[in-house]
TrEMBL record:
Main location: cytoplasm
Name of protein: Alpha-1,4 glucan phosphorylase
Cofactor(s) required for function per UniProt: pyridoxal 5'-phosphate
The protein's enzyme class: transferase
A molecular function GO annotation: pyridoxal phosphate binding
Alphabetical UniProt keywords: Allosteric enzyme, Carbohydrate metabolism, Cytoplasm, Glycosyltransferase, Pyridoxal phosphate, Transferase
Natural source organism: Rhizobium leguminosarum
Purpose: Allosteric enzyme that catalyzes the rate-limiting step in glycogen catabolism, the phosphorolytic cleavage of glycogen to produce glucose-1-phosphate, and plays a central role in maintaining cellular and organismal glucose homeostasis.
NCBIfam families: P_ylase
Gene name of this polypeptide: glgP
Record-linked Pfam families: Phosphorylase
An example Gene Ontology biological process: glycogen catabolic process
Length: 820
């Protein structure tokens, strides 16, 4: 009998890293993939050609990484996040592959500057702030520490808005990062799934007399997969970031189009595509809320269908799912996944409810990122039930199971039952997504030691009582590759010169730098690098905003999402008080200071947008006042993103981490600044607590109320007016702002903002002002002794290695996922 043997498919030969070969390949891609002659190629053509050459080298490692998982049966981690703030990828990929010098030389031989074309790469608009940047750091670290992983999110066409300033006001414009395509991504046509909304649920009996529920959605869209490789350090492993794009089942209703209804013919197409158009659509309206919930279910369902399909390709059934799959929910945005996995296991794959619920709980884990009640998502029951009727049934079934156990098994009181219920009945009934994520996960982690402790006694106190072994801490981290090696090559080179290369593979080896912190020669080199970074930022500010900065001044920087709890308002009020002091006491030796702000306010968050306007109004007055003599300048840099952070972080002398204690879960900007040699001024909030423990109390400036003190002040009855009246500098600053000194065109512009501080001061701006102002003068004193300053800032760089995301991911892998 004749047999046909399978053809042997040869593996491609390893690609050369020699500059001359790289140059040849860049020309080849330029010619045959882009269709340009080198003589007429534009910088963006060279960028795309270079990315394609680098991408080829990644693909070899990517496929090898995938084959290894199938061969070994290793457990996979799936990280579900509504945001992935990945930033520009070319420099990151080249650096992690160890090809930076080779690519630089190859391009130079072609007359191209790698830095010029790298600056043209779009900054992917896939996130807002710390949550999304953390997810990006985790993707890089999972590949670095060789944890097989997929990241799942949404391929936003516009993502978060592009921020411009118009007369000091934030203006939101679409961010067209995908306008010219994305050479990093690969469309996966075979990975497309139907996602349903609305409709009804039918009860049927199967051929073996088993009851079964069938959801028949009224609307359906297709989730199409686009994959981007995530390269680990030294290219040891390449994981996958899979982003979902929404597509209509029928792109055009041809009958309607031919009948002349050209707009109606595209209705379904437009409705589907709106799902993945914008990150965080404004949810102040019912339509915005519905779109937000649709987005969350869309990417959660697509991701779970993909996970289950991949599992069945390798294993016989789903009983092994918790042993081979770990799914991490990054905040509450993907919490609907808990109900969706139960639905898929029961309704699609025929499993009984109890077994499906057991598998679900053992598969999921949940990271909480906030103690703010309004940030723990909830959805109106009528909206949820109309959009996801089968999931509402499942949530009620889960809730019954939990509440019966709590009442009968744990003797919970009525109040405790109300607290743990998945349905909030204190007003209009709402589905609590934080509670759903908690009960549906075997592990719930906070992101700093303080945050985790507070979770147990605040938002999840009663759930912690019900499940006392589930909450654990995993303090956040940052990838030192992007946030030191790539964004601060000057400092990286100096460190290598001083202590060798071990820190490149293990950030905690930075501790060896401690012995150099008081060395005058090392301090001089360190200071020269800091100044060069400040010159680079000054040039950026001058080119974008026409504002000239003095690099010899202290660069005092606060960059983060604009929110009242992050207290940009405290910072700018203190700047007004300092302005008054400089004018009133010109005879004193004031430290020259540049205060830089950057960050975006949610479009519907009026007070946050008003704070941006206030910063710009104050800056206009101070920057143009000759009596200040250039001793104080204030700049708000628009359109904060990863690329801007990569310039601002290395240039910072002082890092502002001044959130109201007990309200910041962790923070990661604090870690980036510290790693790059900035002194931190901050409250004992989030990871600042652990930063103080790591860098030492002498190398950080702490002020203000602690978390328990904030809680006590609020419960005892806070009297901000008495505090203001007892603080001359605060009273004068608030009076100036409130009376329109900085807003002569509208004297009442800031009346409500200032009245809020007088009447309730929820964010403790008045309560912490005097301590903050005193801490700033302490910072001035340290600055006047430059040797002491650099001893502290060098110690910060040396002692920040523990905050590497590699350490964080190893803890997740060992203690939660049991993977890697």
């Amino acid at each position: 009998m004749n047999t046909v043997s399978k053809p042997i498919i040869p593996s491609p030969a390893p690609r050369s890293s020699r500059p001359e070969i790289l140059a040849e390949e860049i020309i080849e891609r330029l010619t045959y993939r882009i269709g340009k002659d080198a003589k007429v190629a534009k910088p963006h053509d060279w960028l795309t050609a270079t990315i394609l050459v680098v991408r080829d080298r990644i693909i070899d490692k990517w496929m090898a990484s995938t084959r290894e998982v199938y061969a070994t049966g290793a457990k996979r981690v799936y990280y579900l996040s509504l945001e992935f703030l990945i930033g520009r990828l070319m420099r990151d990929a080249i650096s992690n592959l160890g090809l930076m010098e080779e690519v630089r030389d190859a391009l130079a031989s072609l007359g191209v500057d790698v830095n010029v074309i790298a600056g043209l790469e779009p900054d992917a608009a896939l996130g807002n702030g710390g949550l999304g940047r953390l997810a990006a750091c985790f993707m890089e670290s999972m590949a670095t520490v060789e944890v097989p992983a997929y990241g799942y999110g949404i391929r936003y066409v516009h993502g978060l808005f592009r921020q411009q300033l118009a007369d000091g006001w934030q203006v939101e414009l679409p961010e067209n990062w995908l306008a010219h395509g994305n050479p990093w991504e690969f469309e996966r046509r075979e990975s497309a799934y139907e996602i349903g909304f609305g409709g009804a649920v039918e009860f049927i009996t199967t051929h073996d007399d088993q009851p079964r529920y069938v959801w028949k959605p009224a609307e359906r869209v297709i989730a199409a997969a686009f994959d981007t490789p995530a390269v680990g350090w030294r290219g040891k492993r390449v994981n996958t970031l899979r982003l979902w794009s929404a597509q209509p089942i029928d792109p055009i209703l041809l009958d309607a189009f031919n009948a002349g209804d050209h707009i109606g013919a595209l209705r379904e197409s437009n409705k589907a595509e709106s799902l993945t158009r914008v990150l965080y659509p404004a949810d102040a309206t019912p339509a915005g809320q519905e779109l937000r919930l649709r987005q969350e279910f869309f990417f959660s369902s697509a991701s779970l269908q993909d996970i289950l399909r991949r599992h069945l390709q390798q294993y016989d059934d789903f009983t092994s799912l918790p042993d081979k799959v770990a799914i991490q929910l990054n905040d509450t945005h993907p919490a609907v996944s808990v109900a969706e996995l139960v639905r898929l296991l029961c309704d699609v794959h025929g499993m009984d409810f109890d077994q499906a619920w057991d598998i679900t709980r053992r598969t999921f884990s949940y990271t909480n990122h906030t103690l703010l009640p309004e940030a723990l998502e909830s959805w109106a029951v009528p909206l949820f039930e109309r959009l996801l009727p089968r999931h509402m049934q499942i949530i009620y079934a889960i809730n019954a199971k939990i509440l019966i156990d709590a009442r009968k098994g744990k003797n919970f009181s009525d109040g405790e039952i109300r607290s743990i219920s998945l349905i909030d009945e204190s007003g209009d009934r709402r589905v609590r997504m934080g509670n759903l994520a908690f009960v549906g996960s075997h592990s719930i982690n906070g992101v700093s030691a303080l945050h985790t402790d507070l979770m147990k006694v605040t938002v999840f106190a009663d759930l912690h009582k019900l499940y006392p072994d589930r909450i654990n801490n995993k303090t956040n981290g940052i990838t030192p590759r992007r946030w030191l090696q790539q964004c601060n090559p000057g400092l990286t080179g100096l460190i290598r010169e001083a202590i060798g290369d071990e820190f490149l593979d293990d950030a905690e080896k930075l501790r060896a730098l401690d012995v150099h912190s008081s060395d005058p020669a090392f301090q001089q080199k360190f200071a020269a690098i800091k100044r060069a970074n400040k010159v680079a930022l000054s040039n950026l500010v001058a080119s974008r905003m026409g504002v000239k900065l003095d690099p010899s001044a202290m660069f005092d920087i606060q960059i983060k999402r604009i929110h009242e709890y992050k207290r940009q308002l405290l910072n700018i009020i203190e700047a007004v008080a300092l302005y008054d002091q400089i004018r009133s006491h010109p005879e004193l030796d004031w430290v020259p200071r540049v205060k830089l702000f950057a960050g975006k306010a949610a479009p519907s968050y009026y007070n946050a947008k008003l704070i941006i306007k206030l910063i710009n109004d104050v800056s206009r007055t101070i920057n143009n006042d000759p009596s200040v003599r250039g001793l104080l300048k204030i700049v708000f840099v628009p359109n904060y993103n990863v690329s801007l952070a990569e310039v601002m972080v290395p240039a910072a002398d002082l890092s502002e981490q001044i959130s109201t204690a007990g309200m910041e879960a962790s923070g990661t900007g604090n870690m980036k600044f510290g790693l790059n040699g900035a002194l931190t001024i901050g409250t004992l909030d989030g990871a600042n607590v652990e930063m103080r423990d790591n860098v030492g109390e002498d190398n950080i400036v702490i002020f203000g109320l602690k978390a328990d003190e904030v809680s006590k002040v609020r419960s005892d009855g806070h009297n901000p007016r008495a505090i203001i009246e007892g603080s001359r500098e605060l009273a004068q600053a608030l009076a100036a702002i409130g009376s329109g000194v900085f807003s002569p065109d509208d004297r009442n512009r800031y009346t409500s903002l200032i009245d809020g501080i007088y009447s309730h001061d929820w964010f403790m701006v008045a309560a912490d002002f005097d301590a903050y102002a005193q801490a700033q003068r302490e910072v001035d004193q340290i600055w006047t002794n430059q040797s002491a300053w650099y001893t502290k800032t060098i110690n910060n760089t040396a002692r920040m290695g523990w905050f590497s995301s590699d350490r964080t991911i190893r803890q997740y892998a060992d203690e939660i996922w049991r993977a890697g």
